[in-house]
Amino acid sequence: MVQAKFWVMTKHFDGFPKNSDFELKVEELPEPKDGEVLLEAVFLSVDPYMRVIQSKNPAFPVGSHVVSNSGWRTHTLSDGNGLTPILPEWPKDVSLSLALGAIGMPGLTAVYGIEDVLGLKEGETLLVNAAAGAVGSVVGQIAKIKGCKVVGSTGSDAKVVFLKELGFDEAFNYKTVGSLEEALRKASPEGYDCLFENVGGSFATVALEQMKNCGRIAVCGSISTYNDSTPQTGPYPYFTMIIKELKMEGFMQSSRQDKHPETLKRLLAWVKEGKLQCREHVTKGFENMPAAFMGMMQGENIGKAVVAV
Question: Domain named Enoyl reductase (ER): which ranges (predicted)?
Answer without folding.
Answer: 15-307
